[in-house]
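Is adenosine-5'-diphosphate placement plausible here? Inputs below.
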Amino acid sequence: MAAPWEDVLRNKPAIQEAVTVAVDAALLEGVLMRTEGEPNASDVVNYAPFTLLPSAVPSALFEQAYAVQQDFNLLVDAISQNKEFLEHTLASTIQVDDFTAQLFRIHKQVLEEGLAQSVFLGINRSDYMFDCGVDGKPALKQIEINTIAASFGGLTSRTVAVHRRVLKVLGKSEEASRLLPNNPSKGLALGIAKAWELYGSQSAVVMFLVEEVQRNIFDQRCVENELWNRNIRVIRKRFRDVFEKGSLDYAKRLYMDGQEVAVVYYREGYVPENYNQQNWEARLLLERSRAVKCPDIATQLAGTKKVQQELSQPGMLERLLPGRAEAVARIRATFAGLYSLDMGEEGDKIAATAIADPNRFVLKPQREGGGNNLYGEELRQVLEKIRDSPERTSYILMDKIKPQPSMNYLLRAHSPLEVSECISELGIFGVYVRQGKEMVMNEAAGHLLRTKAIQHADGGVAAGVAVLDTPYLV
Ligand code: ADP
Ligand code: MG
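Reply from A.M.:
I modeled the complex. Tokens:
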């Protein structure tokens, strides 16, 4: 995809001027992050990293990604209600992966007790790259779907204005006017507000469950603001606050400090490091409650890499979404090759193939948050070591997606300005609300484009690798 800005990319004075404007615009618009040095204070903040220029995205693939989002919402929701599927799919994983096993134990316990929750809220983000096939035609391929704590819907709502300004400064007003508006924070908030309303208690609050270290607080504040604007009270608490001050009444209503909680929106709880014994107890308390969890633990499990791999098995989507052939076809078209490393002949074979040709694959453990996957020589070494051990079942293999790079400037505070060869990842936010068996909301709520230099195989914005971007449709 040729970037439409080739003419200005090497024009250093023009670029320098645009950078100055861009950084101030980012601060002005609120594209902000707390600093590494003071991650829990807002006294010193800086701009969140972003590209100087919007990146080209093929419009057909962009539309395809939006068109399949409601299907993915239905799929995730269906999986979360399918006890047998989750049990069967995660059986081998929970033997070797303690984190998934612990989540699964809570899931089972809550089901055995009987669900107190009757309203369900899903906020997810389906991520894609544009794979450059042998024919050179780019294809939309899903990287993963994030069903818990999908971030940057807030900050990305504010980056369009920055990129519009940059293009104008560079004399590209016409192109600036073509950048699409994008406001996931509003869409996410509308989902939370709907769930809050259906919960049915005017005095109840929405609780954002947040991390101990909150560098990305402004992203969350964007969503929070939308709720306050609708007169919905938001509180921010950590697991340890829940452990100390959370309680359930006789009807399993959740209270924090005497305040009833209608919705728990997790921006935490997706990696093992988020938990100690107390935090697990707090998680169990929340899951047992009547409050709407976004996501409930079953939906979190639906977002595991192992589930993603199982979905690519022949006939699986048809079983999960009966009578929805068109949705199934749209979903399947976005799948890259995914392979199980379960013990057995099939697993032996694909492990051998990957060891022989590691650059064709990505090796993924059951982890979220970036920086966990293995590539190339490292993939080969690890797989060679575990190929005959059940440990290999804690990973899946995936075909490596190979996008066409393009040139851009990645702006990061305190970093030198240099042009980089980059690739992008497009995410679409999905929001849905279900009451009992009835879907009352099912939407695509906006998008996120993240871009990184090609030398980084892995890692997102929070991990300091990717930066925020805006799609320029071509
Ligand atoms: P995480 O849950 O850690 O975010 P992902 O599956 O999103 O895990 O992988 C992290 C990053 O690794 C992605 O953002 C992408 O840059 C890269 N990646 C993941 N899968 C592939 C793939 N199949 N081909 C190429 N790059 C990939
Ligand atoms: Mg990811």
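Short version: The chain has two domains: 6-336+401-473, 337-400.
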